[in-house]
């Protein structure tokens, strides 16, 4: 409720007292109390920040615009080896020589007012040891809004990286075990067939040409399994060359076109007119495309359309999409896709997807498979454009 001030007619030369409601006194008192409490709140906040600075396990250091250290916390001393007294006023050689360009680019972005997220990189300790870290750097501004320094929070990633490596090794051992068991099982079956036919011929003392054809077929299957297993098992000494992926995939389509025609399947291609050059091992990529297209053909017993697209996903990436109208796969099968010797085909080895994933990974790309039962399957392959795969992009 508002309290209007009383008014009286004024007389010249007279000073009159005007009554002021009590609420105005209360407001003044509140303002005084707030002015008194602000330093207290500020002090409490400073204490909280100081406690965080001193007790966090992440290394924090503050530098001026000349990169001279103004403050470090105990975690920084522990990680990098310089005491606060030794570091103060110094430009510390924390950034390895091979990361200086990356660091300069980060600083340029910060000074332009663009914030930086956490970056995983390497830092050098006082003893010269390189440490994998995650660094978040922020610009510090004074009260006038002028840049006056930089604050960096550095987290040691050594333990996490070691745990990830142990997990990768564990997964590798598990995969090797599955592969070994799978190879033994897959080879034993045709060997059992071969042994049976040979024993039968030995007993009858007769050569059966039909049996010979079956035995040759089983030997071919063993050879296929061993060949695909070797691709997975041994490192590939690949010589990457500049190639246009449109021509590579075009060659594969020409190779499989007659087979597709016999199955009443049409290849519909949509290739960008832009050059799609990448650094690659041509024959390995052809093997991937053959695997994917043959899978698509075999998934369409009644024929249909296979759509093949090549385009760009931004300036740095090429995208190949192969979509069929086949039987598709249920979620239960998708969950096991890529496991050793898992296949939904009677004559398949289950290694084709693993081989394809390995080849695409070697080219620093990704292979994604989406499928819906009764609708079809779409395979999307992303690969770095130009010579990005060799690090010269």
From TrEMBL:
Pfam families: HATPase_c, HisKA, PAS_4. Residues 45-114 form the PAS domain. The keyword Ubl conjugation does not apply. Residues 116-169 form the PAC domain. InterPro entries: HATPase_C_sf, HATPase_dom, His_kinase_dom, HisK_dim/P_dom, HisK_dim/P_sf, PAS, PAS-assoc_C, PAS-like_dom_sf. GO terms for molecular function: ATP binding; phosphorelay sensor kinase activity. This is histidine kinase. Its EC number is 2.7.13.3. It comes from Paenibacillus sabuli. It catalyses: ATP + protein L-histidine = ADP + protein N-phospho-L-histidine. The keyword Glycoprotein does not apply. Keywords: ATP-binding, Kinase, Nucleotide-binding, Phosphoprotein, Transferase, Two-component regulatory system. Residues 182-387 form the Histidine kinase domain.
């Amino acid at each position: 409720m508002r309290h209007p001030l009383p008014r009286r007619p004024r007389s010249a030369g007279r000073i009159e007292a005007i009554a002021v409601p009590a609420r105005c006194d209360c407001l003044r008192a509140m303002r005084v109390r707030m002015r008194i409490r602000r330093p207290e709140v500020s002090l409490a906040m400073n204490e909280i920040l100081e406690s965080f600075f001193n007790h966090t396990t992440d290394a924090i250091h503050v530098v001026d615009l000349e990169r001279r250290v103004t403050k470090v916390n105990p975690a920084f001393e522990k990680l990098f080896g310089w005491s606060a007294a030794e570091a103060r006023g110094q430009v510390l050689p924390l950034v390895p020589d091979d990361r200086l360009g990356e660091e300069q680019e980060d600083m340029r972005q910060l000074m332009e007012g663009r914030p930086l997220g956490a970056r995983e990189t390497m830092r050098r300790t006082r003893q010269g040891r390189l440490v994998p870290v995650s660094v978040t750097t922020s610009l510090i501004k004074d009260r006038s809004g002028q840049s006056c320094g930089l604050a960096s929070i550095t987290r040691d990633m050594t333990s996490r990286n070691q745990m990830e490596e142990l997990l990768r090794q564990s997964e590798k051992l598990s995969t090797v075990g599955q592969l070994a068991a799978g190879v033994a099982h897959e080879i034993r079956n045709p060997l059992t067939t071969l042994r049976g036919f040979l024993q039968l011929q030995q007993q009858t003392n007769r050569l059966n040409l039909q049996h010979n054809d079956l035995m040759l077929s089983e030997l071919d299957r063993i050879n296929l399994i061993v060949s695909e297993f070797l691709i997975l098992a041994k490192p590939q000494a690949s010589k990457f060359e500049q190639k246009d992926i449109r021509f590579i995939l075009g060659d594969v389509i020409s190779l499989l076109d007659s087979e597709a025609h016999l199955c009443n399947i049409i290849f519909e291609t949509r290739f960008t007119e832009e050059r799609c050059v990448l650094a690659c091992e041509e024959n390995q990529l052809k093997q991937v495309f053959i695997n994917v297209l043959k899978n698509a053909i075999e998934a369409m017993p009644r024929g249909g359309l296979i759509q093949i697209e090549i385009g760009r996903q931004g300036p740095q990436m090429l995208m190949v999409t192969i979509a069929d109208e086949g039987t598709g796969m249920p979620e239960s099968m998708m969950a096991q896709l890529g496991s050793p010797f898992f296949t939904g085909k009677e004559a398949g080895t289950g290694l084709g997807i693993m081989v394809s994933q390995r080849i695409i990974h070697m080219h620093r790309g990704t292979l994604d498979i989406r499928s819906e039962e009764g609708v079809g399957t779409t395979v999307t392959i992303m690969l770095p454009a130009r010579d990005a795969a060799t690090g010269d992009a």
